[in-house]
Amino acid sequence: MSLRNQIRFILILTVSSFSFLFHARAAEPDSYPVKYQTVQIEGLDIFYREAGPADAPTLLLLHGFPTSSHMFRNLIPALSDKYHVIAPDYPGFGYSSAPSVDKFDYTFDNLAHIMEKFTRQLQLNKYSLYLMDYGAPIGFRLAVQHPERIETLIIQNGNAYEEGLDNPFWEPVKVYWKERTSTHGNQLRSLLTLDATKWQYTTGVRDVKAISPDTWGHVQPLLDRPGNQEIQLALFYSYGSNPPLYPQWQEYLRKYQPPTLIVWGKNDPIFPAAGAYPYKQDLNKLEFHLLDTGHFALEEEGPTIARLMRKFLTQYTNTAH
């Protein structure tokens, strides 16, 4: 090869390499760091995690029991390149205020009231809802109150049908709903122990070694705070206010037909797959996935759920980013 051809070859290779690196870097999603913030609602500090461009479609992530926005710690950055992601802690959970039961009414009506004021204060006028466990009764109250605000639903082990409560886990809780005595309440305190918290995270998963102890390491010290057991018992009792509202929530689904993605851990002993199937009766725009994992499906199936959410949200939201 002549010297001239060698130089030409080197130049072409250099330009090609630069072009490849440029386009590869351009294809990488923008990085939006998670911000940890607090806002005051009716004298309470409500902590929340937020990431993503403010003008992108908004995702409001509502956590379950006994965790907090911590359960979304990996999902938020996985979606924040194209979505404005917000995950609050309810009063009594995570890093939000936890006033004693004699200073705050721990009911699902009141938690939903605080979350509705939270959405107004942050000017969330249109959003998709991620509903998990306790997030379902809170989120469905928001949806019924303001159906015009709901763009889509992502439901992960979040119940809205009687079929989802027909299992042994709920038997002692239902006794407490019928007769709120200290005896029946004390029988539920075992659900607030470290063993019970680990059980929630590990039961039904494929590989226990894949579940980080950072989960119960975050949750249990918060559950063990003085007065927090009384908070949780109040909410166990208040959960009995949810089944009577199921017909109202189901009517919302039938009337407004929000596009819905179900990503449900099918081995969950608390909200088993029996609670997922009835959504098919009421929703026309439904994408349905049963995942081979347990209650906290994000711990083992987080990348899968993020991928399914991105595909689903691209179809039903305006993702210009």
Tags for this model:
single chain, 321 residues, alpha/beta, Rossmann fold, eight-stranded mixed beta sheet, globular, AB_hydrolase_1, Haloalkane dehalogenase, AB_hydrolase_fold, EC 3.8.1.5, hydrolase
In short:
It comes from Gimesia algae. The protein is of the alpha/beta class.
What features would you describe in this structure?
The chain is α/β, with parallel strands linked by helices. The chain has a single domain (35-316), classed as Rossmann fold (3-Layer(aba) Sandwich). It contains 12 helices and 8 strands. It has helices at 3-27, 75-79, 108-121, 135-145, 171-178, 182-186, 194-202, 214-223, 228-238, 246-256, 279-282, 297-316; strands at residues 35-41, 44-51, 58-62, 84-88, 127-131, 150-155, 260-265, 286-291. It has an 8-stranded mixed beta sheet with strand order 1-2-4-3-5-6-7-8, with helices on both faces. Helix 3 (108-121) packs across helix 4 (135-145) and helix 7 runs antiparallel to helix 8. The longest helix is centred in the first third of the chain and has 25 residues, at 3-27. It is globular and about 50 Å long. It starts with a helix and ends in a 5-residue tail after the last helix. Mean pLDDT is 92; it is low at 9-28. GO terms for molecular function: epoxide hydrolase activity; haloalkane dehalogenase activity. It is an enzyme of class 3 (hydrolase).
